[in-house]
Amino acid sequence: MHALLGENGAGKSTLMSVLYGLYRPDEGELLLDGEVVSIESPRQAIDLGIGMVHQHFMLVPVMTVAENIVLASEPRKGLLLDTKAAARRVRELSDRFGLHVDPDARVRDISVGQQQRVEILRALDRGAEVLILDEPTAVLTAQETAELFKILRTLTAEGKSIVFISHKLGEVLEIADRVSVLRRGKKIETVSTEGATEESLARMMVGRDVLFRVAKEQSSAGAPLLEVEGLEVEDDRGLPAVRGLSLEVRAGEIVGIAGVDDNGQGELVETLAGLRRALAGTIRVDGADVTDADVRGKLEAGIGHIAEDRHRRGLVLGFSLAENLCLRDYRRAPIAKHGLISPQRMNERAEPLLEEYDVRGGHCEALALSLSGGNQQKVVIAREIAEDPKVLIAAQPTRGLDVGAIEFVHRRLIEQRDAGRGVLLVSLELEEIRSLSDRVLVMYDGRVVAELAPEASEEEFGVAMLGGRREAV
Amino acid sequence: MSEGEGEGTHTVASQLSGYLRGGGIVTPLATALIAFFIGGLVVALTGSNPFTVYKAIFEGSGLNWLLPWISSEDRTLAALNLQQTLILTTPLILTGMAVAYAFRAGLFNIGGQGQYFAGLFVGVWVGSSFDGLPGWLHILVVLVVGTLAGALWGGIAGFLKATTGANEVISTIMLNYVALWVGVWAFGLGGPLHSDSPSDESVPISDAVLGDARLPVFWGDPELQGLHAGLFIALVALIVFWVLLNRSVAGYEARAVGFNPDAAEYGGINAGRTYVKVMLVCGAFAGLAGVIDILGWQFAVATNDIQNAGVVGAGFIGIAVALLGRNTTSGVLFSALLFGALINGTSVRNLDPAVFPPELATNLTLIIQGLIVLLVSAPVIVTALYKLRPRRSRPEDPA
Predict the structure, then answer these.
(1) Which residue among A26, A296, A319 sits closest to B256, beta carbon to beta carbon?
(2) Confidence bin at B345 (pLDDT 50/70/90)
């Protein structure tokens, strides 16, 4: 198993797209089993035994698992799809590799982890010998990741080759045999994972030493800024997602919310930000009740929100950076007067922010979609902090970022804390929660099931995150 | 690296509006040229010479008036033709904006024609009533009431989308038909707005707009349908369009929703309310086009004209205008002029039958219009053509 490691924009995904025939190389040649091959299309890549599991799954949500897997090579009965044969084929395949899926379930109804298995099975069904996985763990929970690794080990034991793309150092060290580090489109080095450390890999990736744990002073928590009591929220399907949750964030502290994905964190954050309605309970900011306030009301009350998904929520990718930086106050003076927006005042505000936050490639007129993920996130953070919130809600603030950008984001969050603001950090990365938070709340099934000190052992966290009600501290 | 493309809702309209994000002159020019080229091939197939046909169309449009070297005799004729071209261009500017503004908000307003009808019908009704009102006041009242009627007609589609999620493509098309048949009923024989004047009683036509409620002609002979002041109203509306889109809070909200409704919501923008506002504005533009046509040169509405316009009316051509003009202010102006010139240049009255059969010529306009819509709205085709060149294919999943 070979891992490809590199920062955002280092060329990992591009390289893999070349292997899969999505791009054609400008120069150079590809060798497969010692022979020069030229791959013109994904179809040809499949014929050569190369299978790809994309980061964004390419599945048809309304079709069943079996239909997705046999797509384009369906067993037929006359003109019709032979569903029984398809299900049988899928079952044989999943038994052989130990990947368990229900062939008759519809893809839209199964979890992300299972969808990924479907993708892997589809590649195997087409006879893949070399399997390329593009950041497969980015969307998985810790448990799902562990299961995926088990599957990958089975596959290598069966003689399959696996190329594993990632920018998570720990995972690479855990799963891969050899690692190639890419930086700005060049291979820096290929090393064996034996003897390599996270620090040595990070240095190769970024080209300098990286601090993994941000140094921070002891916090001195003040008055409560955010008080949530008995909050109940439903998810999009109308099922209870947050069930009677209470929490408190004080001035000058970072409260972390740990938990396995999909335990109500998303709904909690959306409710606090005004994007979702609370069914019951109260939300108070600095003493004022803002339970039923909308986005604008919550914002004016002092809730800043670094959205979990910067593409879907945090940014309008087709807008310029200046326009994005005023997304939260475009209708207020000094940006707007009498219903008209002044581009000049918009730029006057944007320029110093872009400079202060070191947004690379960022001038006022540049479109948000032209920036790399890390720089996009800097724009989001700059905007939310510039609003001078009392409470900053950071949802997965470092998702998809490379180590350099993560360090930057972490430092900013600590700065906010030290400036006397309250920070609520929601993340699936336990390591991130533990290194930044002053207190950690563990969320399970829509409730806070434990409050732990960040120093608590990984095992204690693990038990709490899986719903074991063991009050620690 | 881990960045996919924006994952907002992907409707046809939002994809189109993304593709058609303002700016760029090469693509629209190339699009028009390809359309004219294919149109030329069609002309050649009929056995005529495409070059002489295009030259005749150009002269028929009166655009040769702009050329400094033509003789004064030609210039007199060209002036008459250019007046007609600009009369046709005026509503196209407005209906083009009615489609373009919706596109920028991620909506596909196919209802320009219905909104145009609303302005036209209310315009002729109010314009032919209230005898004795001072002329300028009468004109102003008709303009305002007709524009509001168009806004209301467009607003219905916006309201339905905001409250029930009804797709605006379907609802605007249906509202076109509602407007059309209401008009046929109201102005038809025995209809409530059918003309009372004895000479017209057996013809399905409305009363005519009163003389002093008609827009003044400022170029050419009022008796020979000279150019009326509606052109200036359309140009002022263009400025309003630009300010609204690029400098106003409402336009910022519309564009934000057009790019990404989820991010807009995060910015505190209510998408539903924005849809209603946008469709009100679109309807107002298209309604204004209808009023200007009725006060400027049509003066009365006949039911067979309504039924013709239901197929090839200004509201529909506005879609092509917006697409070719890439939803920008200057783009709408120039493509409206192009279509105005094309329609006038290929009209039966202007094209010499010896050069090209006029009944085919009108269809040539439709062919070129159709090709432009097809080329602009099917970037896939253009990309596919582009892909024929070796190497550097476009990736399916930009990483």
Answers:
(1) A319
(2) confident
Answer whether B262 sits within 8 Å of A313, measured CB to CB.
Answer: yes
First-to-last CA distance in chain B? 6
User: Which of B2, B252, B260 has its CB closest to that of A317?
Assistant: B260
pLDDT at A324 over 90: yes
Instruction: Quote the CA–CA distance of A425 and B290 in Å, as a whole number.
Output: 56
User: Which one, of B319, B258, B264, lies nearest residue B13 by Cα?
Assistant: B258
Burial class for B222, CB neighbours closer than 10 Å (0-12, 13-18, 19+):
exposed
> What CATH code is assigned to A224-302+389-465?
3.40.50.300
- DSSP one-letter code for A108: G
Domain boundaries, chain A: 2-206, 224-302+389-465
Mean pLDDT rounded to a whole number for chain A? 84
For residues B251 and A331, what is the distance between their CA atoms, to the nearest angstrom? 11
Backbone φ and ψ of A159, nearest 5°: 95, 5
Q: Which residue of A has its CA nearest to B240?
A: A340
Average pLDDT, integer, range B37-66: 89
The residues pairing with A256 across neighbouring beta strands, listed in sequence order, are A425, A440
Pair type for strands A336-337 and A340-341:
antiparallel
Average pLDDT over residues A130-148: 79
Mutation pick from B257, B266, B391 vs chain A, by most beta carbons of A within 10 Å, is: B266
Chain A closest-CA separation from residue B28 CA (Å): 20
Percentage of residues in chain B having pLDDT higher than 90: 54
Residue B303 phi/psi, 5-degree rounding, is -65, -30
Residue B74 confidence (pLDDT): 87
Q: Running DSSP on this structure, what letter comes out for residue A217?
A: P
Instruction: Quote the percentage of chain A above a pLDDT of 90.
Output: 32
- Tell me if the bond preceding A25 is cis, omega within 30° of 0: no
User: Structurally, how many domains does chain B consist of?
Assistant: 1
pLDDT at A212: 60
Domain A2-206 in CATH 3.40.50.300: yes
For A10, nearest residue in chain B (alpha carbons): B1
CA distance B195 to B25: 48
Cβ contact (<8 Å) for A340 and B399?
Answer: no
Least confident stretch, A174-178, B40-44, B328-332? A174-178
Is B249's CB within 8 Å of A340's CB?
A: yes
Q: Give the pLDDT score at B10.
A: 43
B394 located within any domain: no
Q: Which of A165, A270, A311, A377 to mutate to test the interface with B (most CBs of B within 10 A)?
A: A311
Q: What is the DSSP string of B184-239?
A: HHHHSTT-TTB--SGGGTTSSBBPPPPGGGSPPEEES-GGGT-EETHHHHHHHHHH
Question: Rounded mean pLDDT of B242-259?
Answer: 94
- Are B249 and A294 in contact (CB < 8 Å)? no
- φ and ψ at residue B178, rounded to 5 degrees: -60, -50
> Whole-number mean pLDDT of chain B?
85
Structural domain range at position B86: 12-384
Chain A: residue nearest B398 by CA? A14
| Cβ-defined contact of B260 to A316 (cutoff 8 Å) | yes
Q: Find out whether A176 and A193 touch, Cβ atoms under 8 Å.
A: yes
Beta strand residue intervals within B14-53, DSSP E = none
CA pair distance A415, A420, nearest whole angstrom: 9
Q: What is the mean pLDDT of residues B370-397?
A: 55
- Kindly report, residue by residue over A261-285, the tens digit of the pLDDT: 788 999 999 999 999 999 999 999 9
Common-topology check for domains A2-206 and A224-302+389-465: yes
- The answer to whether the Cβ–Cβ distance between A327 and B396 falls below 8 Å is no
Q: Torsions phi, psi of A127, nearest 5?
A: 80, 35
The answer to whether A242 and A264 are in contact (CB under 8 A) is yes
Chain B closest CA to A92's CA: distance in Å?
Answer: 31
